[in-house]
């Protein structure tokens, strides 16, 4: 079966004027236009292609890489809005249609939006939606505390950064746990800090709890070596100074230098921390 909205590995069946016809083991066939065919090929070769619907709603193959796949989220640019809805640039020739009923708020040409790609059951067309809450759930969690996860930042508020976790769950990075510049649309690795009784998920960008001590300590060691062995920071330094200098919270900093001090890697002075020389 050739899957629309996904990558398919298909065999080259024949070459015609429009392009190469590709097929699967079930004798399903799709056209790859000439402009996407490889420079060298033989009948029977297999190609990995993305399949979507062309302007006449017929399945078509391409070697272009879309910005999102079926049942996933992407951060897309709105290139046009007309009386039917919005049209998003998703890396392919035909733009992705987002009808008005699927817009969380009215879209405007030139703006960027978090969009989910799904296959409409009635029309069998690929459709975008910015009503992201419809496509995530926290009822049945697939993550646990301290898990490393992939996140997509959906929007920023006074509380912090709202994120989608592994394309499945909603989470929040609280403002006090943000020590770097993050923006809507950013994708990155993160960690589950805490799962609350109502299944709300707290996320952090650094390894949470005791697991963060060792990497933070190593980071501080690298910083000390890079600046000649002394940093004008200590356990009584202002939290903002620590955040600006090292990108971590004061709590994480104190845990890390405590570890380094116990391991006899540094000495803590009144004006900062100093790397101990290894004679």
From TrEMBL:
Conserved virulence factor B first S1 domain sequence ranges: 5-63
A Pfam family annotated for this UniProt entry: WHD_CvfB
Organism this protein belongs to: Ulvibacter antarcticus
Family: Belongs to the CvfB family.
Domain called Conserved virulence factor B-like winged helix: residue spans: 220-275
Database matches in PANTHER family: CONSERVED VIRULENCE FACTOR B
Name this protein carries in UniProt: GntR family transcriptional regulator
């Amino acid at each position: 079966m050739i899957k629309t909205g996904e990558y398919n590995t298909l065999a080259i069946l024949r070459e015609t004027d429009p392009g190469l016809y590709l097929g699967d083991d079930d004798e399903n066939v799709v056209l790859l236009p000439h402009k996407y065919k490889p420079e060298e090929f033989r009948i029977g070769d297999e190609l990995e292609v993305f399949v979507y619907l062309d302007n006449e709603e017929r399945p078509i193959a391409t070697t272009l890489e879309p910005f999102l796949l079926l049942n996933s989220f992407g951060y897309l640019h709105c290139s046009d809005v007309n009386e039917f809805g919005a049209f998003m640039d998703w890396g392919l020739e035909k733009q992705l249609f987002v009808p008005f009923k699927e817009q969380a708020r009215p879209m405007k040409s030139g703006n960027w939006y978090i969009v989910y790609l799904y296959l409409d059951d009635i029309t069998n067309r690929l459709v975008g939606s910015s009503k992201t809450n419809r496509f995530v759930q926290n009822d049945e969690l697939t993550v646990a505390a301290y898990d490393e996860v992939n996140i997509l930042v959906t929007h920023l508020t006074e509380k912090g950064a709202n994120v989608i976790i592994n394309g499945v769950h909603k989470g929040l990075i609280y403002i006090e746990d943000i020590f770097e510049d993050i923006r809507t649309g950013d994708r990155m690795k993160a960690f589950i800090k805490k799962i609350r009784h109502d299944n709300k998920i707290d996320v952090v960008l650094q390894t949470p709890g005791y697991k963060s001590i060792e990497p933070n300590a190593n980071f501080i060691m690298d910083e000390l070596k890079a600046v000649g062995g002394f940093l004008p920071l200590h356990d009584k330094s202002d939290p903002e100074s620590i955040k600006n200098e090292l990108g971590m919270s004061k709590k994480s900093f104190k845990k890390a230098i405590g570890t380094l001090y116990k391991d006899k890697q540094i000495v803590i002075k009144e004006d900062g921390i100093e790397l101990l020389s290894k004679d």
